[in-house]
Amino acid sequence: MKIGLLLEGGAMRGLYTAGVLDVFMEEGICADGVVGVSAGALFGMNYKSRQAGRVLRYNLQYARNRHYMGFYSLLTTGNIMNQSFCFDKIVNQLDPVDFAAFRHNPMAFYAVVTNMETGQAEYISIEDLQKTEQMEYLRAGSMPFVSRPVMVDGKRYLDGGIADSIPIEKILGMGYDKIIVVLTRPIEYRKKKSGQRLPRWYYRKYPRLTQAINDRYKKYNAAADRVAALEQEGKIFVLRPSIRVPIKRIEKDKRKIQKMYDLGRRDAKAGLASLQAFLSDENSVL
Question: Strands 155-159 and 150-152, how do they pair?
């Protein structure tokens, strides 16, 4: 039986996912493949490298460091997430990624990115984080408008959440027998239509990207409805925040960071018996 795991993004809401994944690692729940969007990929990579606790640790350590993320970084580098600090200093020196463990783990790992020219999602297989272009695909998960595009092989990329926030159709087509979905919004959440003038002006050279940004709310809501329907039918297993925790996309309050992480742990433990039953039920195989 092959297990697929889908991880929604959401910037610092991804601490919820980190809490869930740490419980998974502690309980020996292993997926055969992961599809991560934005923070889902950035935080989810620690699931493949088997580094429980790392996401919470470095976020608590550096949340208030102006070189980590925030408006100081945006003003001085053009990126809300400081490229040098986040994708070099932390991962190589301050709280190193276990690159060897990531590379040797047979778990497939895909990061979702949005191609700026086509406005379409691309699902990139990430196999070796010590290869510069592979880490660049993860860096592309930074938020639009406050991040410079990432260029790989002559193509420009931005956050995969623009084109496919919840890639449920993608993971359904990947041949997994069981699928677990981790969302970072409560069950009732749906996106509202936002102003369309800013994308049209800011990304005016990329009309397909602009269209993807302006249509995002419709795609998100359709995917959320699809997930809810599949969950109701018992075809997938979903973990999502059981309560609303107010947290900013760039959160500096360590108490809120801890609270979001703790909620992920609590919800994962509360759903553990149901998850294990789902994984052992042959009748629910897709």
Answer: antiparallel
Give CA separation, 180 vs 43, 111, 168, in Å: 16, 16, 10
| Residue numbers in the chain where pLDDT is lower than 50 | none
pLDDT, tens digit (0-9, with 9 covering 90-100), for 106-125:
999 999 999 999 999 999 99
Query: Who contacts 204 (Cβ-Cβ below 8 Å, separation ≥6)?
Result: 210
**CA dihedral for 188, 199, 251, 139, sign (positive or negative):** positive
pLDDT score, position 285 = 65
Q: Which amino acid makes up residue 45?
A: M
C-alpha closest to that of 167 among 220, 236, 232: 220
pTM for the full predicted model = 0.95
> In angstroms, rounded to a whole number, what is the distance separating the alpha carbons of residues 37 and 52?
19
Terminal alpha carbon distance of the chain = 11
Q: What is the pLDDT of residues 168-227, one digit of tens each?
A: 999 999 999 999 999 999 999 999 998 889 999 999 999 999 999 999 999 999 999 999
DSSP codes, 145-186: SSSPPEEETTEEEEETTTT-SS-HHHHHTTT-SEEEEE-SS-
Give the C-alpha separation, 108 to 182, whole Å: 17
Place of tokens 């301050």: 94
Is 183 in contact with 166 (CB distance < 8 Å)? yes
Q: Which residues of 252-284 are buried (b: 16+ CB within 10 A; e: fewer)?
A: eeeebbebbbebbbbbbeebeeebeebeeeeeb
Distance from C-alpha of 79 to C-alpha of 33, rounded to nearest angstrom: 30
Query: In the beta sheet, which residues pair with residue 182?
Result: 7, 239
